[in-house]
Design brief:
Blueprint (H helix, E strand, L loop, with lengths): L5 H15 L4 E4 L6 H9 L4 E4 L3 H15 L5 E3 L3 H4 L2 H10 L3 E7 L25 E4 L7 H18 L6 E7 L19 H5 L42 H10 L5 E5 L9 H11 L3 E3 L16 E2 L8 H4 L7 E5 L6 H9 L3 E5 L14 E3 L3 H11 L6 H20 L14 H12 L18
Parallel strand pairs: 1-2, 1-3, 3-4, 4-6, 5-6, 7-8, 7-10, 8-9, 10-11, 11-12
Amino acid sequence: MTAPNRNTLWARTIVDELARSGVTAACVSPGSRSTPLTVAFAEHEDVRVFSHLDERAAAYFALGRARRTGEVTPLVCTSGTAAANYHPAVLEADQSRVPLLALTADRPPELRDSGANQTADQEKLYGDAVRWYKDLPEPEAEARKLRSLRTSVARALTAAEGTDPGPVHLNVPFRKPLEPTEVPGDVPEGLEPLAAAGRPTDAPGAGGAATPGAVGAAGAAGPSAPPFVERTQGTPELPDGEIRSLADDLGVERGLIVAGPADPHEIDPEAVVALAHATGFPILADPLSGLRFGGHTRVAPVIGGYDAYLDEAVTADWPDPEAVLRIGASPTSKPLRKYLARTDAQQLVVDPAGKWREAEFTASDLVVADPSRLAEALARVVAGPDSAAWRDRWAEAERTHWDAVDAAEGLFEGGSSPTPSTPRRSRRRCSSRTRCPFGISIASHGRVRTR
């Protein structure tokens, strides 16, 4: 027998397929209706389980882990209001393009809209914030339904980790018994091995010996067992003719590369630096771009203090940039956004998902391409006049800003800085000792925040 009852088989199949597809960890919160999924994750030897009493905390933990690794960390919760606590993190994952998978246990259909305890309308609970939603069928030990279940898991991961990564919601109804107790006749002995146990390790694309048979109690099919559906993710690239056309647009004296907040693992610093060298454009790096600090700043004109000096009174006599290449999300700096809106530059917004991420509505071009690959391709063919005077203007403004910061007293709590260079040394010390590719946010406490 493959499992003591159909709920256990169903949950093991979900977890088995997730593990075969590369999932290595899950976040589980306590609850009764989610028992089959909780037990299946706990028993699987290739998946690490993080237990969180609070669903909101679990969701943000999974969000942070996915942002760091680029991989889905599934969430498991019981029915009712528990799933609603995922909503803030789902919205964050949607806006930040972080892969997330919510597995919300639910009551069977006849108990919905009945006033039963721990019951809420979980149909499309997160609206259009998710990349894909599916209300899974009720568990059944039938070959076609199990193959469909494995395919649904593959589709969920594809949607979560695709070109436009983000949250996915699978609603999983269970009826009692929820525990892995024996139910005679619930799972037939002759169940098709492919449906019950997934593809064997000798399937095309997999290594190792054949492992037919059912998913065992531990739910592990072996580290080399292939997924039921092999997923191949691509990245949008432009043809050579379009690359050369964009290179012509960037072949100007005065240009900028604006790197906004980066989607996880999206922007390659080396590719952007190569383009900066080829064009002679300064890089205006958002704190969340991953470009503001690092070894590349020693060889590229990376600008980070612009928030303090891009006021209209300062830039009124500056010549406008002729072209601006924008990668990543909209910059967090309001002065930068307003500066770009005031210029008469050709602004090219690059987004791999083809979405509009420019709220001033002054950009002239939307380029659907992977930003790092595009930067590499452009760096090979762009040829511009490379105005040293334009680049020096930005370098001088940046230097003046940081000199003023270093000369300021009382910048930190506790009084005057010990030496004029303390702020700059503190920044460098933090950046050199921090291995995380994302920024450290330092903010005051108890202050009124205004926009």
